[in-house]
Amino acid sequence: MKVLLINGSPNKNGCTNRALEEIRMQLAKQNVESEIIWLGKESMQDCIACGRCRFLGKCVFDDKVNEVSALLDATDGIVVGSPVYYGGPTGLVCSFMDRLCYSAGRKLDGMAAACVVSCRRGGATSAYERLNMYFGMNNAIIPASQYWNQVHGFTAEDVEKDAEGLQTMRTLADNLAWVIKSRKAGEEAGLSKPSRERRIRTHFIR
If you ran DSSP here, which 8-state letter would residue 196 be given? Predict the structure, then answer.
């Protein structure tokens, strides 16, 4: 059992990473392996809606998106972390998730998926809502926690003082592990994922 933890902060060892580390340590206690992947400081190409991924089986731009997409084939859960920029996730995280979900959203079907956000003071809940949108439209299972998945602080050292925030991360990790183990137990008992109808797409002028 494995969970990918995506650090979307430009600061590799900052507040977002500290939240993910708390999840990683708690998952280890539940015998669930995890790996933190840092998206880095380089700019992230936006999705250009070229549709090439339908034929290539991956995004036409070969970067962290395709790296993570390949890892999803052997992954049971994913957590995406972002600092809060003006009440939302970073542009880098949004570009990453836009392209990942467009080119590989089918891989999230039935997967345990969650997000965490970090902020100095405000805007966490709107960023949290934005990130959950990706999972909600890709048939992912979204484990909750005892509060919205957020930590507060300007530095990783500040986050250490956010006792409630870190506890929320540990509870999230426990719930992630429970969902993953429950799915495994269901599969072993012969319970498969729901079959999907052929996708219907409409828009508002017809």
Answer: -
Q: What angle do CA 128, 129, 133 make, to 5 degrees?
A: 115
Distance CA 98, CA 96 (A): 6
SS3 sequence of 145-175: CCCCCEEECCCHHHHHCCHHHHHHHHHHHHH
Q: How far apart are CA 132 and CA 56, in angstroms?
A: 27
Q: For residue 35, what are the β-bridge partners? A: 4
CB atoms within 10 A of CB 131: 25
Q: Cβ of 12: how many Cβ atoms within 10 Å?
A: 13
CB 85 within 8 A of CB 117: no
For the segment 14-48, what is each residue's pLDDT rounded down to a tens digit? Answer: 999 999 999 999 999 999 999 999 999 999 999 99
Task: Quote the radius of gyration of the chain (alpha carbons, Å).
Answer: 17
Structure tokens at 198: 């052929």
pTM > 0.90: yes
CB 104 within 8 A of CB 69: yes
